[in-house]
Design a protein that fits this description.
Blueprint lengths: L2 H13 L2 H22 L14 H15 L1
Length: 69
């Protein structure tokens, strides 16, 4: 096996560990919680019942989608 392939496999193994996935999910949850606290009074990000304009709602929905991705 070539060294390049060994390093590629090692990198894939390190970046796909369950602990790393949990850390990333936790960080995403904190980011969402911060958005909800700052702009929605601690409630979930939602366009219904919001006082924000359509463009602001689109922005928040886009941010939420990016964080979840």
């Amino acid at each position: 096996m070539q060294m390049k392939a060994v390093f590629r496999r090692a990198q894939q193994w390190l970046t796909k560990t369950p602990e790393r996935a949990l850390d990333q999910a936790y960080e995403a949850a904190l980011m969402i919680q911060t958005l909800e606290a700052q702009y929605f009074g601690g409630n979930p990000i939602s366009s219904s019942g919001s006082d924000y304009s359509q463009s602001a709602q689109n922005y928040f929905q886009g941010e939420l989608k990016n964080i979840l991705t």
